[in-house]
Amino acid sequence: MLHRSDIQIRDPFVVPVPEEGLYYLYGTTDRNAWSGPGIGFDVYRSRDLEQWEGPFPAFRPEAGFWGIENFWAPEVHRWRGMYYMFASFKAPGRRRATQILAADGPLGPFRPLSDRPATPPDWECLDGTLYVDRQGEPWIVFCREWLQVTDGEMYALRLSGDLAETVGKPVKLFSATEAPWVRSTVYEAEGQPDVRGYVTDGPFLFRPAERELWMLWSSHGAEGYAMGIAMSASGEIEGPWMQEALPFFRRDGGHGMLFADLEGRLTLALHCPNRTPDERPVFFRVKTEGGTLAL
Question: ω before 121 within 30° of 0 (cis)?
């Protein structure tokens, strides 16, 4: 068994399976996810969010898979009796993109639904997440990379019922600088001039009430990597989206998500600190209070 503090992971995503009395933990698990060939994604399981079994190999690329590097931020969602993984990959000469994979159970193995990513092929994209609207229709919500557009963007794109195809065109939700708390960041690349821009990372959609729709998402704030909250004025994915003035989690942590624990308590998962190889999964009890989230 491993203690939570023993697990190096970025972008933690927790799937409770009540019928098993277990939690499954996914995330960016390559030791150095920034460079070199990607190995895959591991999953851990636990009864109490503190002691964990694993790692188990949830995904390993098979021959012919297009992704080579930057295996980032897998999320797993239960949809129509299956488990679907939304994860980001990149390869030389190809844009970073989110691919959708599927498995019969939470341990995998997860395999691609199709031979191409769900995000637009000429866009640099990452951190796709599943959103199901009030009509029961699925969408992928994803980030368009600041490295391509400078001011990172958030988009939604409708999916077919089996999640294998996209439907229509992407809908822009907002840009990073619409949030007052966001600060610029610098990407230092060897042999290249520094690139400065504004990050959009890690969207996660949730409804605190029937006609409300909120989004957790991450960027860089005044005290480092941080996480803010956006709210849809219409309660629908198309928005318009309003940004809270201050980040919800402000210092050296982010890429969060929410889940109900096995006792029904709302719980926040994120990684902290934001430096490799020290990142660890962290969990907080949260509640909706005063029109926002409170730790």
Answer: no
